[in-house]
Amino acid sequence: MQMVKIQIPDRGERGKALVEMGRRGRVICLPEDTFIVPEPALQLLQSLGVQFQELGRGGHDYAEKALRDAAAAKI
Fold first, then answer.
1. What is the pTM of this model?
2. Which of 20, 27, 56, 57 could in theory staple to 5 by disulfide, Cβ–Cβ 3.0 to 4.6 A?
3. CA 69 to CA 63: how far, in whole Å?
4. b/e code 29-64 from CB counts within 10 Å (16+ = b)
5. How many CB atoms lie under 10 A from the CB of residue 2?
6. Four-way CATH pick for 3-73: 3.30.70.790, 3.40.50.970, 3.40.630.30, 3.40.50.300
7. How far apart are the first and last CA of the chain?
């Protein structure tokens, strides 16, 4: 399954999106209002009218690398 890195800039939409995506699957939260979600979550966001920006795509290894990079940035 493809994982997609997205950014949701609007705070109100971000809260609504996180609740709905979390009910349906895994959401990886990264710094700067950035998230990694399964590809089907994009359709959900569109149906909710949530504006988002796609930043990248990849498999599970892509998601793991993004988590490692975010953790390393804190050091």
1. 0.82
2. 56
3. 10
4. ebeeebbbbbeebbebbeeeebebeeeeeeeeeebe
5. 13
6. 3.30.70.790
7. 31
Angle, alpha carbons 8-30-27 (nearest 5°): 75
Assess whether pLDDT exceeds 80 at residue 71: no
Would strands 28-30 and 34-38 be described as parallel, antiparallel, or unpaired?
Answer: antiparallel
List, in sequence order, every residue forming a beta bridge with 54; answer none if it has no partner: 6
Q: Dump pLDDT digits (tens) for 5-58.
A: 999 999 999 999 999 999 998 899 988 889 999 999 999 999 999 999 999 998
∠ CA 71-74-75, rounded to 5°: 100
- In this prediction, residue 67 has a pLDDT band, given cuts at 50, 70 and 90, of confident
